[in-house]
Amino acid sequence: MLVEAAIAILLALQAVPAETGDWRTDVWRLSDEGDYAGALARVGASPDPSGYEARVMRVRVLAWSRDYEAAGRELAELEHAYPANPELAAVRGSLAYYQGHTDAAEAAFRNALALDPTSAEARDGLARLEAGAAGAETRLRLDMGVGVSSFSRSANSNWTQGFSQLTWIAPRFSAGIRADHYERFGLRNDSLGLRLAYRLNEKWDVEGSADVGPDNIFRPEASLGLTIGRRWSAASLGLPAVRTTLGLRRDQYSTVTVDAAALGLGLFWEGYSLEGQAIAVADVGEDASYGALLRGAYELGDQTTFSFGIADAPETDAGTTVNTRSMFGGVRYRFDESRQIRLDCARDDREGSYIRKACSVSISYNF
């Protein structure tokens, strides 16, 4: 990140007209030395500290110092005052890039080029994104978690579950092996599965899953899933990035086969996301039941993410499909690039059956 910030500073220097004054050179030097407080003070002592140039420089210094929240606020005010500004669009891309929001960064850089095809900062930003995707090293990630449940409207108890997954991650492809363990009402079910994901290009991606548990009683004995996604960018129109998905799944229980389909639409802003799904579930040869799901997420800084959602949709349990109303939420905390922890809780109200309250904790570690 320090190298990237230094490159950004040098590129910005190349775009500075010689007649702008020594205060800008001082700001570049102080920022390059890591003295961000001094750089901000020098911006404040510029000939016009409330003018456009000084405010843009303040945004850059705040972003380099990783005060992304303050940089975002200042940049939003500038974008309101100077709409359709190619420099601000490129700065928006750089701010998103520093935070690791690659999709938002790409959309902003492309918007900047649409407004000004000569934008050096936007061209370099896209080149960095492409180089990062092509040159990223493969790695392994270990995910593990455990969950417990309690019940209302039922005498059932003792429902626990756990999982572990080891995933090999390449720049455009990932493959993982997963093990799930369930203990419910004195019964035990286990399954072993594969997870695959491939990004065909900047727009299309596909994910697949396969699980087997030959002796399962309340879980499927076999499952197959496929999801196709497409990204859409409308940054030049001032709209959020969009991702549409189509998911198909077949679960084979000991007594019945259940098919499910989900059509999803996701909207992505910098630090925010919102996704809706239309869901259909049916036993093979029977009429389908329909429902919907809505979920969102908010990134607080570059370490904490909050998620939430509601659903009113059919859900299959032990081969029986019942309409279920759910509320769920979670929080994820990223310690660093390698480690994170997540807490999730949910409440499921199965029509004519039990109410289940569940919480789980999971950890991820990148090797």
Describe the model.
This protein is of the alpha+beta class and 367 residues long. It is built from eight helices and 14 strands. The chain has helices at residues 2-14, 22-32, 36-44, 52-64, 68-81, 86-98, 102-115, 120-135, and strands at 139-152, 159-169, 173-184, 187-199, 204-212, 222-232, 241-252, 257-269, 272-283, 289-300, 304-317, 320-334, 339-350, 355-366. The chain has a 14-stranded antiparallel beta barrel. A hairpin with a 2-residue loop joins strand 8 (257-269) and strand 9. The radius of gyration is 25 Å and the shape is elongated.
Provide the descriptors you would attach to this structure in a database record.
367 residues, alpha+beta, 14-stranded antiparallel barrel, 8 helices, elongated
Brief synopsis:
With 367 residues, the chain is an alpha+beta fold.
Strand content: over 45%
Report the total helices: 8
Number of E-type strands = 14
The biggest beta sheet is recorded as: 14 strands, antiparallel, barrel
The backbone outline, from C-alpha atoms, is elongated
The sequence of SSEs as H and E is HHHHHHHHEEEEEEEEEEEEEE
- Low-pLDDT stretches are 13-20
- Rounded Rg: 25 Å
Q: Helical amount among residues, as a percent range?
A: 25-40%
Largest sheet, order of strands side by side? 1-2-3-4-5-6-7-8-9-10-11-12-13-14
Overall pLDDT level: 86
The structural class is alpha+beta
First-to-last CA distance: 19 Å
